[in-house]
Amino acid sequence: MRGPPPVPQNKPRSGRKLEAIKEQSYRVCEIFKSIQGEGDVIGRPSIFVRMYGCNLTCTWCDTKYSWVGQEKAKEGIDYARMASRQILQEISEFDALLVTITGGEPLLQPLEHLVQSLANEGYEVLIETNGTVKPSTGLQKLVSTWSVSPKTSNAGFSIKYGGLEWLQNVKDYYLKFVVVNPKKDIKEILAFMQERNIDPSKVILQPDGTREDYVNAVKELMDFAKEGPQLRVLPQLHRLAWGHMRAV
Predict the structure, then answer these.
(1) The CATH number of the domain where 91 resides is what?
(2) pTM score, two decimals?
(3) How many Å is the maximal CA-CA distance in the chain?
(4) Strand, helix or coil at 220?
(5) In 103-238, which ranges are E strands?
(6) 17 within some domain
(7) How far from 245 is each of 151, 224, 239, 240, CA to CA, in Å?
(8) Strand-pair category, 45-51 with 25-35
(9) Residue 84: CA atoms inside 13 Å, Cβ hemisphere, count?
(10) Which residues 6+ apart lie within 8 Å of 134 measured at CB?
(11) I need a labelling partner for 228 at 20 to 30 A (CA). Which of 42, 47, 107, 191 fits?
(12) Strand order in the sheet with 98-102
């Protein structure tokens, strides 16, 4: 990601004037274009805006550079401080209609102004979140798709989730669970779903992306799932294509 560019002067691609939006600035880890490798949008070209900072410390996290040492993080080294308009300027250099806002945990920062700006420019916005931070009512309505990844005990800690009732107010969503030990983890996932009356068609199981033998991890999960509950299994497409690489 390059340094913060000048404020853009171009008109919105949607042809509408940008609404008056209070200027916001964000801690941004990186911006890049790739192919979405996960969830319902797997395979689609997307511009990724990775926010810096997280409220969890998952043992199998594959983007730890977005939060490790965050207590001592320095602007210009660990992240760039960028205004909404500067982010828009940078992503306008890429040719894609889908913008994925991810992290870390992006909802630790006030995203409504940025997402409104993106919507005004005609972008489709996907937010990837761990589900521990409830988004504002306005943000719930603005986002095209929510990718919610609740953490089970395999993340290295225990966390109490609410009912996630806010998902009933959004345009579209899916839940994505990382599976390390299929037999143990899927039992925990099914309990999570039952307690919240979650539609199985909204759930995706994903193998641990930090496994060196990733293809075997995919196979193990598929072997278990085909004999078990009717839940989708999807790999990380970028992991299969590029392995452990940043900004892909």
Answers:
(1) 3.20.20.70
(2) 0.90
(3) 56
(4) helix
(5) 124-129, 145-148, 173-179, 203-207, 232-233
(6) no
(7) 23, 28, 8, 11
(8) antiparallel
(9) 20
(10) 162, 166
(11) 42
(12) 80-83, 25-35, 45-51, 98-102, 124-129, 145-148, 173-179, 203-207, 232-233
Tell me whether strands 25-35 and 80-83 are parallel, antiparallel or unpaired.
antiparallel
Tell me the two tokens of residue 62: 């594959």
Please indicate, yes or no, if residue 138 is contained in any of the structural domains: yes
Locus of tokens 């089970």: 152
Omega before 228 cis (within 30°)?
A: no
Residue 29, phi-psi category: left (phi > 0), alpha (psi -120 to 50), beta (remainder): alpha
Task: Say how far apart CA 111 and CA 98 lie, in whole Å.
Answer: 16
pLDDT per residue as tens digits for the range 184-225: 999 999 999 999 999 999 999 999 999 999 999 999 999 999
Please measure the distance between the N-terminal and C-terminal CA atoms of the chain and give it in whole angstroms: 12
CA pair distance 177, 232, nearest whole angstrom: 11
Total domain count for the chain? 1
Q: What is the DSSP letter of 11?
A: P
Is 81 inside any structural domain? yes
User: 155 lies in which domain range?
Assistant: 25-242
107 or 18: which leads in pLDDT: 107
Residue 207 lies in a domain: yes
- Residue carrying the six token digits 């990380």: 236
pLDDT tens by residue, 80-122 = 999 999 999 999 999 999 999 999 999 999 999 999 999 999 9
Token readout for 22 is 């209070």
